[in-house]
Amino acid sequence: MKSKLHIAFYLVSIFILGACGGTQDTMVEDYEFENFEDGVIQFTFFHINDVYEIAPLEGGKVGGMARVATLYNQLLEENPNTLFVHAGDFLNPSLLGTLKHEGKSIKGKQMVEAMNACGVDLVTLGNHEFDLKKHELQERLNESNFSWLATNVLTYNGEKLVPFHIESMGNREFLPETFTWSIFDEDGTEINIGIFGATINSTKKDWIYYEDYYQEAVKSYLELNCETDVVFGLTHLAMNQDLKLASMLPNVPLFMGGHDHENIIDTVGNVIVAKADANAKTAYVHRITFHKNTGYTEVSSELVPITDEIEDEPNVQAIVDKWAKIQDENLTQIIANPNEVIYKTTVPLDGREASIRNFQTNLGEIICKGWAHAASAKKANAAIMNGGSIRLDDQLDGNILAVDLFRAMPFGGKVWEIDIKGSDLRKILNQGLENKGIGGYLQWYNIEYNSGKKAWSIGGKPLASNRTYHICLNDYLAAYSETISPIIKQANVKYYKPKDEDKKDPRSDVRKAVIEYMKTL
Ligand SMILES: [Zn+2]
Q: Distance from the CA of 243 to the center of ligand 1, in angstroms?
């Protein structure tokens, strides 16, 4: 499971030093400390990314912030010069985030609490941080005890562009574009380490302004290069963007990335780009040896699986338990045992946003199949759902608990059945294809599309325009979705809905229907 990459190279900083205007000369300093310091210092980055879940997943086997905290404490013991960084995406999505506590939406509060308790030092803004409303993000900023990098993202104060800020005791502290970490070791070697960020511009809101991430990262690098001994990236970009940026900044030894949810490590020239798995299934430990007088930097990156073999750190575990109780109190109103194992999968069920909004996945299919199975009026010919109802942005693997279906579909809703004419069903399915890339892209069961012939079949037979089909779907898609529900409303369909008071009806909750179906498998 462990993978190691070891790369060493020279920082060719001499060319850029001239541009800084200072008289930075490391040779002079080396003579001053000759008797004491060896000019070599070791430090560690503990790096996670895309972590939304504070509790372990896959029936307790992987992940969990209390285990992350234990590993971090071990690294601190190994080397006190360890910086705990999170490369973005932590405030959303999560099931807990969609629930309410003490009358307020939780919206990532649980994650900030756990990160504070873990001792996270520095984060970079990810696109999912902007899923929140502006005032909710402000609350999370204010609650955080860690530093945030906002290298290329600004907000508006009226018409004026301003940095995001943290408000504490009436003071406003603006989020910086760069971060400097000053360390020294036992023999007196002292260095300043610069870190810049970069945030992908995928979540558009009228209160967010993105600057060009390439330009701003390069600008930040050049500034840091003048003020610090060595510069690293903590980025939240897609891999191809990270690699492009890495090619523009060949003297950065390491980019600690996020956004991609599977662990990956690659190099551009001498630059390493590394990302861990989402939800702390793994973490990266980057051990760095830096030679101050030459700029020679050795990076040894180790991907560490976070499993049940790592003990829980008690303080963080107490926070995880507190929130688990809040979650259970909410869920037991819908199902008796949220933590029951309902199914064991041998292949990961794909609920990643980039998948479910672009192609049919096995998770989309099994959910739709569960709804078809719940049909009570008559046997369903097929089932459909909008991919946007799946908010997991992750894969489900191994033991699937009932709560995992709630994580997958935090918004809930009911299963409806409709009788619809084939010609109208075709319009809906075609619209689903048009919605590729957005939440209105359809997942389905018992439906096939032949893209060459542009032809649909239902249950293996060509879709017949004049035939009436019995279809299961979520009430959101039927009644509220922007592009599909107008077609259904115009189609003069016959509806079969569960009764509001009948909580035993699996159709009363989209998650309940799938859970009951999975238990039969
Ligand atoms: Zn992201």
A: 16
Q: Which residues surround ligand 1, an ion (CB under 5 A)?
A: 89, 126-127, 259
- Is 344 found in the same domain as 432? yes
Burial class of residue 1 (count of CB atoms within 10 Å of its CB; 0-12, 13-18, 19+): exposed
CA distance 58 to 308: 11
| Whether residue 370 sits in one domain with residue 231 | no
Ligand 1 center to 348 CA (angstroms): 20
Q: For residue 440, what is the domain's CATH number?
A: 3.90.780.10
Q: Which residues of the chain have pLDDT under 70?
A: 1-35
Cα of 260 from ligand 1 centre, angstroms: 7
Specify the pLDDT at position 500. Answer: 85
Say how many Å lie between the CA of residue 49 and the centre of ligand 1.
9
| Residue 416, beta-bridge partner list | 473
Report how far ligand 1's centroid is from the alpha carbon of 506 (Å). Answer: 34
Quote the pTM value: 0.86
Beta partners for residue 302, in sequence order: 4, 285
Ligand 1 midpoint to CA 199 (Å) = 9
Whole-number Å distance, alpha carbon 357 to ligand 1 midpoint, is: 15
* Nearest-angstrom CA–CA distance, 521 and 346: 13
Which tens digits make up the pLDDT trace of 192-239?
999 999 999 999 999 999 999 999 999 999 999 999 999 999 999 999
Same domain, 145 and 243: yes
- In a domain? residue 323: no
User: For every residue of 94-125, which 3-state class applies, written as one string?
Assistant: CHHHHCEECCEECCCHHHHHHHHHHCCCEEEC
Domain extent for 462: 333-520
Alpha carbon of 129 to ligand 1 centroid (Å): 9
CA of 59 to the centre of ligand 1 (A): 25
